[in-house]
């Protein structure tokens, strides 16, 4: 049975309402007939495409499309007339459109089908997707930049951690060799003399390995960072958006309490973003199997004038054993974890003259906090 909608107005009011609806709609609305001729082109369409209605009405709608659709559109209509197979009619999808100046932009186009004065007509609603696309592109660029920098950071940090671990056994090897040489220093036996020479060579090689490690540490520790005055809230917002990409199915509630009165802080934007990203990802991962998934992010000014950011989750929290060594490298409880995220975060915060620490959250989860001093130390 056909459903009818009868507004409680007379004909004149209906016509006025119709005009109001068409002219004030934010999305473009257009009507084309079965041959593709434009019959209605509303104000939003004028704005979107840059055409006056007079330039479009009575002409083929394909003028609003870029090649190759422009040439193929009549064929689409024909195919629909003969086969009845719907590609976009009744559904809607993202397509590209062409402005009067020739520029091309993304739109979400939904098309309804109807009959007007005994003729089939199609009603198109056009939603401009340019801003969404630009935001998405910016997010992707940011993500690529972050991935690049975090790889560099991870490599630097890992080699630094390995170098630290390796230095001690290497120094011990050199010491033992020297002691061994001293022990047999006065023996003039042919075999012992040969062994002494070999010990010399071994000690030389161990010292060389030590030098390589020293250079590696110097190289990774002296990597340039670029500081500029930044808004912590903006960085937090961007990094949260990045960290949450792909976690929508988790049905997680994210609450942001970002203080409006924060001063600009001198920082390396990408590095601080990396810290936020790490903390949010850890929180999201910790809440994967939690019955309540609630992430609360807070920024505020402390009594000392520093800027503080906190990330509280409703995950299972941390065991005492993990807490004890939490910020050391290679501490992980994850199957595929490297356990260096938090130790990198801590070095980044310390290089900024700030701090990073964890407290148990009241609901049983974890809460990570970091501070950034309002007046940052010089690099
Ligand atoms: P990774 O994520 O590779 O394990 P991290 O240094 O980032 O390395 O984290 C170290 C360990 O700290 C994790 O394996 C996890 O056990 C614990 N952890 C970090 N954040 C949280 C959190 N929000 N809730 C519970 N445990 C956490």
Task: Output the keywords.
single chain; 379 residues; alpha+beta; Beta-Lactamase; Helix Hairpins; Heat Shock Protein 90; 3 domains; 5-stranded antiparallel β-sheet; 5-stranded mixed β-sheet; 45% helix; 21% strand; binds adenosine-5'-diphosphate
Describe this structure in words.
The protein folds into three domains: 11-128, PAS domain (Beta-Lactamase, 2-Layer Sandwich); 130-223, Signal transduction histidine kinase, dimerisation/phosphotransfer (DHp) domain (Helix Hairpins), CATH 1.10.287; 228-379, Histidine kinase-like ATPase, C-terminal domain (Heat Shock Protein 90, 2-Layer Sandwich), CATH 3.30.565. Helices cover 45% and strands 21% of the residues. The protein has helices at 11-24, 43-49, 53-56, 69-83, 130-183, 190-221, 232-243, 269-286, 320-324, 341-351, and strands at 28-33, 38-41, 93-98, 104-116, 119-128, 228-230, 253-258, 265-267, 294-301, 307-312, 355-360, 366-372. A five-stranded antiparallel β-sheet has the order 2-1-5-4-3. The chain has a five-stranded mixed β-sheet with strand order 7-9-10-12-11. It has a two-stranded antiparallel sheet with strand order 6-8. Helix 5 runs antiparallel to helix 6 (190-221), helix 5 packs across helix 8 and helix 8 packs antiparallel against helix 10. Adenosine-5'-diphosphate is lined by residues 278, 282-283, 286, 313, 315, 317-318, 322, 326, 331-334, 337-342, 366.
């Amino acid at each position: 049975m056909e459903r009818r909608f009868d507004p409680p107005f007379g004909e004149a009011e209906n016509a006025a309402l119709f005009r109001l609806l068409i002219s004030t709609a934010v999305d473009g609305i257009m009507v084309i007939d079965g041959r593709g001729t434009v019959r209605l082109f509303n104000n939003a369409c004028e704005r979107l495409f840059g055409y006056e209605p007079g330039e479009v009405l009575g002409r083929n709608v394909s003028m609003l499309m870029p090649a190759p659709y422009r040439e193929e559109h009549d064929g689409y209509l024909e195919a629909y007339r003969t086969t009845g197979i719907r590609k976009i009619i009744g559904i809607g999808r993202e397509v590209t459109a062409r402005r009067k100046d020739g520029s091309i932009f993304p739109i979400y186009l939904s098309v309804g089908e109807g009959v007007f004065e005994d003729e089939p007509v199609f009603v198109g609603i056009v939603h401009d997707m340019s801003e969404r696309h630009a935001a998405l592109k910016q997010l992707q660029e940011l993500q690529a930049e972050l991935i690049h920098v975090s790889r560099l950071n991870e490599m630097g940090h890992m080699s630094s951690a390995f170098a630290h671990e390796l230095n001690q056994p290497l120094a011990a090897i050199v010491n033992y060799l020297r002691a061994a040489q001293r022990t047999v220093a006065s023996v003039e036996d042919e075999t012992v003399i040969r062994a002494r020479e070999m010990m010399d060579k071994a000690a030389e090689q161990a010292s060389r390995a030590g030098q390589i490690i020293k250079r590696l540490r110097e190289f990774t520790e002296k990597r340039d960072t670029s500081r500029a005055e930044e808004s912590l809230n903006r960085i937090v917002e961007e990094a949260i958006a990045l960290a949450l990409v792909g976690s929508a199915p988790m049905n997680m509630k994210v609450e942001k309490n970002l203080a409006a009165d924060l001063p600009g802080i001198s920082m390396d934007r990408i590095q601080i973003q990396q810290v936020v990203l790490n903390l949010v990802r850890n929180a999201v991962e910790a809440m994967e199997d939690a019955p309540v998934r609630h992430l609360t992010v807070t920024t505020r000014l402390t009594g000392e004038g520093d800027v503080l950011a906190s990330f509280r989750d409703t995950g299972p929290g941390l065991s005492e054993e993990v807490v004890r060594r939490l910020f050391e490298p290679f501490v992980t409880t994850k199957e595929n974890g490297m356990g260096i995220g938090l130790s990198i975060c801590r070095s980044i915060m310390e290089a900024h003259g700030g701090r990073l620490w964890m407290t148990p959250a009241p609901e049983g989860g974890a809460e990570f906090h970091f501070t950034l001093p309002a007046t940052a130390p010089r690099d």
